[in-house]
Amino acid sequence: MGEYRSFCSFIFVLLLVACTSGEDPYRFYNWNVTYGDIYPLGVKQQGILINGQFPGPQIECVTNDNLIVNVFNSLDEPFLISWNGVQQRRNSWQDGVYGTNCPIPPGQNFTYVLQVKDQIGSYFYFPSLALHKAAGGYGGFKIASRSVIPVPFPPPAGDFTILAGDWYKKNHTDLRAILDGGSDLPFPDGLLINGRGSNGYTFTVDQGKTYRFRISNVGLTTSINFRIQGHKMLLVEVEGTHTLQNIYDSLDVHLGQSYSVLVTADQPAQAYDIVASTRFTSQVLTATSILRYGNSAGSVSSPPPGGPTIQIDWSLEQARSIRRNLTASGPRPNPQGSYHYGMINTTHTIILANSAPIINGKQRYAVNSVSFIPADTPLKLADYFKISGVFGGIPDSPTGGGAYLQTSVMTADFRGYAEVVFENPEDVVQSWHIDGHNFFVVGMDGGQWSAASRLNYNLRDTISRCTVQVYPQSWTAVYMPLDNVGMWNVRSENWVRQYLGQQFYLRVYSPANSWRDEYPIPSNALRCGRAVGHSTRPV
């Protein structure tokens, strides 16, 4: 009851401030996180539900909205939610990963205070701790443009979210035990679309109308290909950037990535398969949902359309074809092309090479030979309270040395402009995500990156996004404005690799110690580890 009164008082203060200062609108969410029985592949499992739902409730908001999300943890273990692609401008305190936040203890709550500042687009949220993502707890997150900002396509007749990804029949605790024991996970048992197996979900459309589909890969270990039987897809947005409107028969969606397409119901009125299938796997898993025309009856009459399987060149060429729409507005009225990212001199180059070492007899994954291990205290709190000995460094290029365990943080200066090169010497595709930032994907190719690779960079109209793939035995290069002070997670979106060390934190630092650059620590920030006993100043 005390926690409820505290939450109500907190909300009252926020409402009072909003009403008296003319701030951007507030949206309020109250979430209860519980275990519950789910049967996504026909087998009873312990899932993680939000307000009794799997997937969880969708967040729908508008650019610059303030979101107040009160999360009550009814699980028997600590819990955190993170917001994939939401930049948390000046506010890594709300990022919801263990490097920035103390976990919410069982039986307690934490209230996230987010602002979707200067963002539009399609994203998702997910549980960030202890392989909880393998049990659910994820949901869609869409940010609409403000009414005064032009959008480069007519309003669709409907807006659908598709959360697709691989799935295991084992509970997350069993999967976690496999990894903690030093082994890798087996091949997934199936694919889900919106929490259900094949033909478990139906999208109803009217003939002749156009619909928006927001597609995210929320899986653990595999890229997917997405397609709709008999229908073309017009790509319009990728992780907050309006794209050149190319037409695709199918799209590769790598781990952690999000795409928006427009689909016109221009075929004979009947039912069609919506298909997701695994990519770059020797065994191909497939899941289907149904696109049903509202004036039709009966089931899908033909087999699901096939898609690409192991073809890397096909996927690489598709990735290169995804470009920024230079004349369209983004979250602000000025055209996206008014930011000339290719004309800015980079301040430094960071080269990140992934690897799969065995350390102390156990399978680990590493970046520049460093395999990340969580500390006893969130890194942001340790940095803020000047608690020494919590984290160490990480080289900004491969060393070629033996792999080792460390809580790794790389430091970068605020307002720098980094060239980041992801090198993948392994035979499996990688997917990298950087919290708090978008970056420009200036190049990707096979082989080893070198300074000569810059001659082929796209410095005019490449896509800006927050999650990018790196093909086997290949490299991907991005330009990234270091415009967001904070402690930011740089991670593999393959959740096995992330859990076993393929991640680190990027500390974007400003010496100014000013609210202009970074918000102060929230008054409700949880303290744990060596931060216990340190006080927060009121906000």
UniProtKB/TrEMBL annotation:
Residues 1-22 form the signal peptide. One of its GO terms (molecular function) is oxidoreductase activity. Keywords: Glycoprotein, Signal. The keyword Signal applies. Residues 32-146, 159-296, 377-511 form the Plastocyanin-like domain. Pfam families: Cu-oxidase (PF00394), Cu-oxidase_2 (PF07731), Cu-oxidase_3 (PF07732). The keyword Signal applies. SUPFAM superfamilies: Cupredoxins. Belongs to the multicopper oxidase family. PANTHER family: MULTI-COPPER OXIDASE, OS07G0510900 PROTEIN. This is L-ascorbate oxidase homolog. It comes from Juglans regia.
